[in-house]
């Protein structure tokens, strides 16, 4: 190197020397040593403007320079000497003169050097000061027409995204807009830390030189994003087999177990007041008849023609006859007094400890059922489809609809904001019909005198009841005291009668979206930047301009916090975090109205947290249209084009990111063209499932079950901090009679505990639980066998307050 500094060597020898330097340069020790000896300055003497000579040496020198600048010491040296401006000037010169694109590797080498030097904060500042954003943006746009220049476009995009100034979210605080005052605030732990934070802790400053190239490159135009968390160990999964084995003896004392006695009333019930199948004393007989494997039907099979509604064949019993009347109607030998049962029964500790053990042949479980359950198979057998599951068939898609006509002219469809709880009564806001496009279907009728929009929707086995839902909503307690009801939750919905394929994303769409985001910095005068919805400002009023969309999420499980209009038809959306929290915003549920047809609206949800999403692999948001529902199509459908999920320039607070600095939020962006003018549409990450919907479904299941065959009980596991009940459901088969041995067999059935919705946003878990409840309550032979073999304890929603207040 000393020789090359004093007198120029021939090109071939220089190429060999720089090839060696490029290989040893990436190592930190070698890179620092070479930088101290002036190798960085030497590289800038070799590289220069466009020239047809010494191209091989130029390429190798750029590779060496890129490797050396990965050292922060060398990068600072380059910035101090003004080499960032030099690199940009050289790149523009090569870009203008390389018309035939024969020197793409040299141009890429210059970009690689810029990428290395902008890994430090000083380098990024020098890049911005040298107008690097506009230079790389313009050159990359000129390269889009040539597919072979994609590596240059991708590297330019990577540099611009890294140098885009970090901003904090346009919010007064990252804490949730809703705050619930805890009765007791812990002294230590994450809750105490959150409550002790001063307001200024939300201010995010780019104080980190962390190299996040791995994250950005993973999102680059290869568009083969891998989940960065896939190699992380899940600490929640227990790997010790000994700990997973059931304990034969209870680990708690009798006194400790008695505190749970009220949650197991079936263990002390003598069934004297029930109308059982058999009223005569009958000895328990074990039937050892061999049976084949029990078959569980799959969710995708067609409903059997012989399957009836859940209500069919059910004996409804509004009131239970008094105990005295029942005792007089049966022989004395058939009656087993409560005192005798309690005397002969085992203690609660023994009952709970022996749940996993069957009793002897005279008093035990039907062992052939238990063995059969061990070999459950999944087969498509239409004859065993659970009754009532016909919502996806064509027959159920034609619905009786009451459409509205209105004598008064109105410019838009009223949103659900008119639904108010006044005097603990509810009235759904009128839906003006001038924008409703009715069809001449035989199932659609028009009624001029109707003041409210009502759609009767069969939700599975007729579990939806709009009037019942309103009554339940009135008793649901929320922190913001919601006074509105979302139309999908009130109307109900059914699955669409057609398949929805995975969306294929066009090549280059993510690169285009990122370029449009960069335009915000380059062409700031084109940005409107107007707030059109703000949950933090209760006095804020939505602008009345006709070309502005109107947003709302002031209903149960809605979680939209703020909306900013960026361009005429583009909006940035910010989700509200979980209540009493400063993060957990990935799922969404909000309302949009005031749209115009045939216009492409772009929505950007800018404060997502996950490092990757299925939106990059064909998933689409869900949309529910009120006008479509009025036209006998009340279903959620997958919508949106140009869907991407990528890291943006909004920084996350280190407090919200678990103490890690330099983390950024992610953006979900999608484009929607609405089919109707002035419609009311709802968007959701997944099919919404509210707490009030759960309570409605449980009431409908309870009223529809056969009390002679199914033991169904809904208790309260606990009360939430807001005063909502957390339901505990018990499902099993009724004993055949109140004879001692039948009751003993009933009490010795093993328990199966199921729970769902511990995370408020995971609405899909609630739909799985709904299907589980319907199946266990059905007349399916397998469901009957399950009820006869087990007692199911189910907590269908473990976090009611979280679900109600925003997910």
UniProtKB/TrEMBL annotation:
GO terms for molecular function: metallocarboxypeptidase activity; zinc ion binding. Residues 687-807 form the Peptidase M14 domain. It is found in: Cytoplasm, Cytosol. It catalyses: (L-glutamyl)(n+1)-gamma-L-glutamyl-L-glutamyl-[protein] + H2O = (L-glutamyl)(n)-gamma-L-glutamyl-L-glutamyl-[protein] + L-glutamate. The keyword Zinc applies. One of its GO terms (biological process) is proteolysis. It comes from the Eukaryota. Keywords: Carboxypeptidase, Hydrolase, Metal-binding, Metalloprotease, Protease, Zinc. GO terms for cellular component: cytosol. Its cofactor is Zn(2+). Belongs to the peptidase M14 family. PANTHER family: CYTOSOLIC CARBOXYPEPTIDASE, CYTOSOLIC CARBOXYPEPTIDASE 1. This is Peptidase M14 domain-containing protein. The lineage of its organism: Eukaryota, Metazoa, Chordata, Craniata, Vertebrata.
């Amino acid at each position: 190197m000393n020789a090359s500094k004093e007198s120029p060597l021939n090109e071939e020898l220089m190429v060999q020397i720089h090839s060696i330097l490029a290989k040893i340069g990436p190592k930190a020790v070698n890179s620092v040593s070479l930088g101290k000896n002036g190798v960085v300055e030497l590289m800038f003497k070799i590289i220069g403007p466009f020239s047809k000579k010494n191209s091989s040496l130029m390429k190798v020198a750029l590779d060496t320079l890129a490797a050396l600048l990965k050292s922060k010491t060398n990068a600072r040296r380059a910035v101090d000497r003004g080499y960032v401006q030099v690199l940009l000037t050289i790149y523009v010169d090569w870009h203008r003169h390389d018309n035939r694109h024969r020197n793409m590797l040299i141009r890429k080498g210059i970009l690689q050097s810029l990428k290395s030097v902008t890994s430090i904060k000083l380098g990024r500042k020098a890049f911005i000061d040298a107008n690097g954003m506009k230079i790389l943006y313009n050159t990359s746009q000129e390269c889009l027409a040539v597919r072979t220049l994609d590596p240059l476009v991708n590297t330019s995009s990577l540099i611009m995204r890294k140098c885009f100034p970090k901003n904090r979210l346009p919010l007064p605080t990252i804490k949730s807009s809703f705050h619930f005052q805890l009765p007791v605030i812990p002294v230590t732990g994450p809750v105490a830390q959150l409550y002790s934070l001063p307001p200024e802790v939300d201010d995010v400053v780019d104080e980190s030189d962390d190299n996040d190239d791995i994250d950005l490159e993973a999102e680059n135009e290869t568009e083969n994003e891998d989940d960065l968390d896939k190699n992380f160990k899940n600490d929640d999964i227990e790997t010790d087999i000994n700990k997973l084995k059931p304990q034969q003896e209870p680990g708690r004392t009798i006194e400790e177990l008695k505190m749970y006695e009220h949650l197991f009333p079936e263990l002390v019930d003598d069934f004297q007041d029930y109308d059982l199948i058999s009223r005569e004393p009958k000895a328990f007989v074990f039937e050892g008849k061999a049976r084949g494997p029990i078959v569980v039907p799959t969710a995708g099979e067609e409903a059997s023609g012989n399957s009836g509604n859940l209500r069919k064949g059910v004996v409804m019993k509004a009131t239970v006859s008094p105990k005295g009347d029942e005792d007089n109607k049966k022989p004395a030998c058939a009656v087993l007094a409560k005192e005798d049962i309690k005397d002969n029964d085992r203690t609660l500790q023994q009952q709970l400890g022996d749940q996993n053990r069957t009793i002897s042949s005279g008093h035990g479980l039907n062992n052939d059922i238990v063995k059969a359950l061990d070999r459950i198979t999944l087969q498509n057998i239409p004859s065993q489809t659970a009754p009532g599951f016909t919502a996806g068939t064509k027959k159920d898609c034609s619905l009786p609809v009451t459409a509205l006509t209105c004598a008064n002219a109105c410019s838009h469809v009223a949103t659900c904001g008119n639904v108010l709880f006044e005097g603990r009564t509810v009235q759904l806001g009128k839906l003006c019909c001038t924008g409703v496009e009715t069809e001449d279907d035989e199932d659609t009728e028009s009624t001029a005198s109707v003041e409210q929009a009502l759609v009767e929707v069969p939700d599975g086995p007729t579990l939806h009841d709009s009037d019942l839902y309103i009554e339940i909503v009135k008793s649901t307690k929320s922190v913001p005291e919601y006074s509105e009801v979302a139309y999908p939750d009130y109307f109900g919905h059914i699955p669409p009668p057609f398949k929805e394929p995975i969306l294929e994303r066009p090549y280059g769409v993510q690169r285009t979206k990122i370029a449009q985001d960069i335009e915000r910095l380059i062409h700031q005068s084109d940005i409107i930047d107007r707030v059109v919805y703000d949950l933090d400002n209760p006095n804020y009023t939505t602008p009345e301009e006709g070309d502005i969309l109107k947003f709302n999420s002031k209903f149960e499980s809605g979680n939209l916090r703020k909306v900013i209009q960026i361009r005429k038809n583009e909006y940035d959306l910010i989700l509200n975090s979980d209540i009493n929290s400063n993060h957990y915003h990935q799922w969404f549920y909000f309302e949009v109205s005031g749209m115009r047809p045939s216009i492409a609206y772009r929505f950007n949800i800018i404060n997502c947290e996950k490092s990757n999403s299925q939106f990059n692999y064909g998933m689409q948001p869900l949309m529910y249209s009120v006008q479509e529902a009025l036209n006998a199509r009340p279903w959620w459908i997958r919508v949106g084009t140009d869907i991407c999920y990528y890291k943006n320039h909004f920084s996350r607070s280190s407090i919200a990111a678990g103490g890690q600095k330099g983390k950024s939020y992610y953006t979900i962006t999608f484009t929607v063209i609405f089919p109707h003018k002035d419609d009311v549409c709802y968007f959701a990450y997944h099919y919404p499932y509210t707490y009030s919907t759960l309570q409605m479904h449980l009431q409908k299941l309870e009223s529809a079950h056969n009390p002679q065959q199914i033991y169904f009980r809904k208790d309260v596991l606990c009360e939430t901090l807001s005063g909502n009940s957390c339901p505990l459901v018990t499902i099993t088969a009724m004993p055949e009679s109140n004879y001692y041995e039948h009751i003993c067999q009933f009490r010795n059935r093993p328990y199966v505990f199921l729970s769902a919705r511990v995370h408020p946003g995971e609405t899909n878990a609630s739909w799985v639980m709904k299907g589980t409840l319907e199946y266990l309550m059905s007349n399916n032979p397998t469901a009957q066998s399950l009820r006869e073999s087990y007692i199911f304890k189910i907590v269908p929603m473990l976090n009611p307050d979280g679900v109600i207040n925003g997910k």
